[in-house]
Amino acid sequence: MHETWVFVLKFLFFANRKILRVVKRRRFLILLFSFWVLLGHLYAQPAHPKLSTTKSFEHKRFKSNLHIEPRLYFGFIINHHTELEPFNAHMPAFEISVTKDTYGKKYWERLHNYPIIGLSFFYSSLGNNPALGQVYALYPSITFPVIRSEKDFLGFKMGVGLSYITKIFDPLTNYKNIAIGSHVNVAINLMAEYRRKLNKTTDIMAGLSLIHFSNGSIASPNYGLNLPMVSVGFSKRLSEPNDMILLRKPSIPTFSYRDNKIYIFNIMGGYASKNMGNVFGERFDVFILSTNALKYFNEISAIGLQMDFSWDGSHKALLQRKWRQDTSFMQVMRPGIGPVYEMRLSHLIMGFNLGFYFGGKEKSDGDVYEQLNLKYLVYKGAFLNITFRAHGARAAFVSWGIGYRLQYDFGK
Length: 412
Known about the structure:
eight-stranded antiparallel barrel; mainly beta; 16 strands; single chain; 5 helices; Porin; about 400 residues; Lipocalin; flat
């Protein structure tokens, strides 16, 4: 536990120095987001007490199990909007990570089939484009095993943290950079990863990633950068492996089903501030209300249906410009519905949602949206909430809010 808190404090200190000069007003919120992602690894409990069949245990001997992992990337920038076509270049990138095997010392490690946790530093020249500059990123990550054998490992890695892009849009000095309007951005790395063990201390690695940088419309412009990349690297263990790995017991497969009648109901509201300075020269308020119903099919995963209601002030301005008359509340409101998948890491709950709009008059963003939702339980069913919404990989907004969670066991 002491080592974990030292790790958290060092990460926050590094991020704080980068943000201080650029986004003082939002420093606390951005750091809080990264802190929640890390904090989710410190505690563990099942999604519902009735599903728990395994008690936590402590090893008599537990080593650090640290690895150093250098990795080389090669990929390109997707021109997901025609305006980004000048940036569509191939490029290399480099990443150095410190990772740690989990051996079941804590209950959450067993529950999620002994994932790999780590902290990564990422660098890319972004194709040496003078308008974009370079990008530096620091993010914690977790790799969930999908297939594991004595020699082979196939998993899904997710890293979420902060990035710093050296060149941003400026109407006078850098008007060609219409992709990014702020130095500090969110960094997301989603990777399918394969590992092959060579010996007790060395693995080789290969991966296929989608890496995303954007600010969630906190600053304008915000088309964001999407980088599909392939990577190779190796992992070097810093000491002899912990022999307690032999005691690892089979965990619950991620998509296994266990019969139950447990249902979850969430209701949450949030607020975002959207910068449309490049269009209207001002910021707009965004309000969102969401509700969903889910059914857990094992201890960690649930699927269900979600409805979202969003009111975006920039849509009202766009409609008034188009129609040259005032608009009603319902003309601006955009309701949406779609499937949702939820995975719980103790107090931290991650939700992934694909939605379809069925109302609203402003449709320039299309009829489909993607959402990443992070909830952190603070007291019983009450939680803090962050929602990232995008349209075709272009960030729409990042909202911050609160919500309440109800659990019902209809099998009692």
